[in-house]
Amino acid sequence: MTAMVEIEGLRKAYPGGFEALKGVTLSIEEGEILALLGPNGAGKTTLISTICGITLPTSGTIRVGGHDTITDYRAARALIGLVPQEIHLEPFQTVINAVRFSRGLFGKPRNEALIEDILRKLSLWDKRDAKTIELSGGMKRRVLIAKALAHEPRVLFLDEPTAGVDVELRKGMWDTVAALKSQGVTIILTTHYIEEAEAIADRIGVINKGDLLLVEDKATLMHRMGQKELRIDLQEPLASVPDGLSDYALRLEDGGRALVYAYDTQAERTGIARLIARLSELGVVLRDVHTRQNSLEDIFIGLVQAGEDAA
């Protein structure tokens, strides 16, 4: 596939020495969805702002659709749609005129059929003649998305796009994102909703304190780093893990009524059969056994914590 966004050695430093981005290198392919995860202050918004030309880089290069964002800014920016975190709308402008205006800013001819299609997909058609001041916070965020799509961008940045949006509408937006992907639009998403990244992303990037810790295919990441846990519910509670089980990394939960054993799904042997046999030898009676796969949230927390420990 063709790289739509290419970032090499991107660094952003501020007076006083604070580095918001520390040599980020990243290639994003045409038509893929990349979810960028990180805690508050990790550098997610700075990265997006720098790619979009809102913030100037200290060093490094950025190309969008082959156009350098500094030397060929207009061509690069014409390919980009941006949905920012902050909601800034002209309060007395109607929804449909706000979207028309955004299209006109890029020199695009009127296309009422396209505007209607965008508004319908975002459940805004019935509100097209309402002033933005009259809308709820969730609806205002949908207007921001409509405005970002008005000039038919090939790259769409969504900076916390579903913040303050109810669950049903959030899933509707996921469907809209999937439809854009099917049209070849490249989408970069930042979110605090881990399930959002897990549901729609092709690749996951984790950033913390300006460092891009990892970028990897979602399924590969979860397979490579995911662990499973075996939960063993006991017939009678234990006061502590029996001495005869010291070879296993076990922990007690639920007031001693459950033993939890974490194991590597890619190991040649999980050790489960030997553990069950050993429990039987020690006279520990099992009531139930079930497993749990690490979620993307577990993996994300682990990566961020590991990065902080290394620092």
Automatic annotation (TrEMBL):
GO molecular function (one): ATP binding
Organism: Mesobacterium hydrothermale
Membrane-spanning ranges: none
Protein name: ABC transporter ATP-binding protein
A Pfam family hit: ABC_tran
Domain ABC transporter: from-to ranges: 5-234
SUPFAM superfamilies, per the entry: P-loop containing nucleoside triphosphate hydrolases (SSF52540)
Matching InterPro entries: AAA+_ATPase (IPR003593), ABC_transporter-like_ATP-bd (IPR003439), ABC_transporter-like_CS (IPR017871), ABC_transporter_ATP-binding (IPR050763), P-loop_NTPase (IPR027417)
SMART domains in UniProt: AAA
Keywords noted in UniProt: ATP-binding, Nucleotide-binding, Transport
